[in-house]
Amino acid sequence: MRLGIDLGGTKIEIIALAQDGRELLRRRADTPQGDYDGILSAIVDRVRAVEGELGQQGAVGICTPGAISPVSGVLRNSNTVCMNGRPVKTDLENRLARAVRIANDANCFALSEAADGAAQGANVVFGVIVGTGVGGGVVIRGHVLDGPNAIAGEWGHNPLPWPRDDERPGPQCYCGKHGCIETFLSGPGLRRDHAQVAGEDLPTHEIIERANRQDARAEATLQRYEDRMARGLAHVINLLDPDIIVLGGGMSNVTRLYANVPKLWGRYVFSDRVDTRLLPPRFGDSSGVRGAAWLWG
User: Fold this and answer.
1) Are 34 and 132 part of one and the same domain?
2) Are residue 158 and residue 273 in the same domain, yes or no?
């Protein structure tokens, strides 16, 4: 049995999967706020409760924003800030008396979709999180690619490729640079672009709804967004040449992307044809917790 845990800022979700991927059980609990020891205790309590209910012990995988530093072994870049700089993996292994595997949310998303989701059976999968931020994960023949710096797939903090004059130097990113892909392709990035060009500050969902109703300014914003996504993903294709790219996060619900972006990326990919497919996720918001369970193969 595999146990997957999605450690979020507001909730802790746990799922139990059978060896063949069938869901056996799923539970949620609130995340203790600002309490490192309380969060560890909540995770351990959920694991023990599920194992008691199902009558067997499971291998534990955890999905969380951020990553374990390969140098120090502590968690970094988590939006649950009380976890940053703490030896989460070691502390949980000590409390559970077993090995624990931890990966960031983009890697878990990619692994879930590669294991038995939209990209099942593909050799090379790039999983994209496009929501409040922009992240990515790489799965090769069923295994997550971490890299020596634990940043494989982090395309969101590369610069937008082939920038046009009006895109330079680009918006300021929280990472300290200008013009990162995240500043253009995140939900807030779409909203900022529409406000800047169209002169109206609208929620992202309303911009999309207006484009669906043939509003000219919203349609122009979506077309700029699609071309920027095509450029960003063309860089990924040139470097990685994935069989399938799966979109996740809030922007993955914009169905027009799956037809329009592949029509555009061919002009940027260094090939006479592009066979990479762009697909919506099979498991959506559940991919993170399922991917955590699949960390044990």
Assistant:
1) no
2) yes
